[in-house]
Design goal:
Elements: H1 2-7, E1 11-15, H2 17-24, H3 27-42, E2 47-51, H4 62-66, E3 69-76, E4 84-92, E5 101-107, E6 110-114, H5 136-142, E7 151-157, H6 162-175, E8 179-184, H7 189-198, H8 204-208, E9 212-216, H9 224-236, E10 240-246, H10 248-253, H11 261-274, E11 278-285, E12 304-313, E13 316-326, E14 335-341, E15 344-351, E16 354-355, E17 363-364
Helix pairs in contact: 2-3, 9-11
Length: 383
């Protein structure tokens, strides 16, 4: 009290209340001392911060009733990866605050807080005209292409071409002069760069001119709140019109201890939709042929679902693509073959010779004349 009257501070920190609790020796005297301090500071224009390490008996909430605001900080240790920190505003008199848990990290220079994302609070007007994917055949499959404010889910087994198709759609936006952000969970950044360049989709020029941001994400070191903050920063600070998440499997696997990840992903997709962003998500499925399964069914969140599958025709493994869901247009119901080579992605005409599609193992029964020529084939399809 003597020091406060002498210096007249704007802010006072008591660190920590456990020492005052020890000095008081009994709960009644401790409460009286805290009340005396409260009455003393009530006559002064200063903010008092009291730190408590929770050494009191469990359920002791006497101090909560005295304080105007209560902020709880938690430190969680995962089975693998870095620790997670989060805070929650339990009480704040006279103020409307954001409830729930908010992730935060301690960095060099201070604390970085990642407020819980509430999509309804972030809305801006945007164009609703469809944009091309860069492939007219894929636009035909989708009906009119991709619409701003929607998200597309590309599902299929490993190696079928999900990432390459997502990169192709992203490059079409970059060539239109838009900005894009790519969040890479699965493979290394160098591998993505080398493979894309070999397929005629060099990403380096777009990185150099600042229109493309690629972030190699280490899932073991990232919390859901920090990831949502990174996406928000790409959209609001870098004006990204296309956001690619590759892939959802790694995102969900890396944070098994965090509950309600699907709800957080729903909130993130709703935010991107209200910002007019085209969101592209990659989802890997278990297996190569037959009944393919995913770790989690997130297709109900997607506005557009593209299914990519392997199929066999005359002893050759080929790839097919189809659209099974679109909320924004009347999409094509057919199955088209596609191939990936040094020229990028090529999509053929609709194939009508499939059977047993719903069984999970489609069989192509028509002649080879309708299939695309692979490398080493002549134009008529013969070796």
């Amino acid at each position: 009290i003597d020091l406060v009257e002498k210096t007249n501070p704007d802010r006072v920190v008591l660190d920590s209340l456990s020492e005052l609790r020890l000095l008081a020796q009994n709960p009644l005297r401790y409460r009286r001392q805290i009340l005396a301090l409260k009455h003393f500071f009530a006559r002064r224009k200063c903010t008092v911060l009291m730190l408590d390490d929770r050494t009191a008996e469990p359920g002791d909430l006497q101090l909560h009733s005295i304080a105007h605001g209560v902020i709880s900080l938690e430190h969680l240790a995962n089975d693998f990866g870095s620790e997670r920190r989060r805070l929650r505003v339990i009480k704040m008199r006279g103020l409307k605050y954001h409830g729930g848990y908010h992730d935060f990290t301690i960095e060099r220079g201070g604390i970085c807080l990642y407020p819980r994302l509430i999509a309804a609070q972030h809305h801006r007007t945007h164009s609703t005209d469809p944009v091309t994917t860069g492939l007219k055949e894929l636009d035909a499959l989708l009906g009119d292409g991709l619409f701003p404010g929607t998200n597309a889910l590309m599902a299929g087994p490993a190696g079928v071409g999900k990432t390459t198709t997502a990169v192709r759609c992203m490059i079409a936006a970059l060539k239109r002069g838009q900005n894009a952000a790519y969040f890479l969970f699965d493979e290394r950044l160098s591998t993505l760069m080398i493979r894309s360049k070999a397929l005629g989709m060099d990403l380096q020029p777009f990185i150099d001119n600042g229109t493309l941001q690629i972030r190699q994400v280490d899932p073991a070191e990232l919390s859901p709140g920090e990831f949502a903050h990174a996406v928000r920063s790409a959209v609001e600070d870098s004006d990204a019109s296309v956001v690619v998440i590759d892939s959802l499997n790694a995102y969900l696997h890396a944070m098994p201890s965090d509950n309600f990840l699907v709800l957080q992903m729903h909130e993130l997709l709703s935010y991107l939709a209200q910002q007019g962003v085209v969101s592209i998500m990659v989802l890997g499925q278990h297996g190569v042929t037959g009944d393919l399964r995913s770790d989690i069914d997130i297709s109900y969140l997607a506005d557009t679902v593209l299914m990519m599958r392997f199929f066999e025709a005359e002893g050759e493994i080929r790839k097919s693509i189809s659209v099974i869901k679109t909320r924004t247009s009347d999409h094509e119901r057919s199955i088209r073959e596609f191939k990936i080579d040094q020229d990028g992605i090529s999509i053929g005409e609709p194939l009508r010779g499939f059977s047993s599609i719903l069984s999970g193992s489609p069989v192509y029964n028509a002649s080879k004349d309708h299939l695309m020529a692979l490398r080493g084939d002549d134009k008529d399809g013969s070796k």
